[in-house]
Amino acid sequence: MHQLKFERIPRATISRLAVYVQELEVMEQQGIKVISSEKLAQLCGVNPSQIRKDLAYFGEFGVRGVGYYVHELREAIRQSLGLDRTWNVVLVGVGNLGRALLRHNLLRKRGFVIVAAFDCDPFKIGEEIAGLEVNCTSKLPKSTRDMNVEIGIITTPPERAQRAANYLMEGGIKGIVNFAPSRISTPENISVEYVDFINHMFSVAFNITQKQIRGLL
Amino acid sequence: MHQLKFERIPRATISRLAVYVQELEVMEQQGIKVISSEKLAQLCGVNPSQIRKDLAYFGEFGVRGVGYYVHELREAIRQSLGLDRTWNVVLVGVGNLGRALLRHNLLRKRGFVIVAAFDCDPFKIGEEIAGLEVNCTSKLPKSTRDMNVEIGIITTPPERAQRAANYLMEGGIKGIVNFAPSRISTPENISVEYVDFINHMFSVAFNITQKQIRGLL
DNA sequence: CTGCCATTGTTAAAAAATTCACTATGCATC
DNA sequence: GATGCATAGTGAATTTTTTAACAATGGCAG
Ligand SMILES: NC(=O)c1ccc[n+]([C@@H]2O[C@H](COP(=O)([O-])OP(=O)(O)OC[C@H]3O[C@@H](n4cnc5c(N)ncnc54)[C@H](O)[C@@H]3O)[C@@H](O)[C@H]2O)c1
Ligand SMILES: NC(=O)c1ccc[n+]([C@@H]2O[C@H](COP(=O)([O-])OP(=O)(O)OC[C@H]3O[C@@H](n4cnc5c(N)ncnc54)[C@H](O)[C@@H]3O)[C@@H](O)[C@H]2O)c1
Question: What CATH number should be reported for the domain holding residue A161?
Answer without folding.
Answer: 3.40.50.720
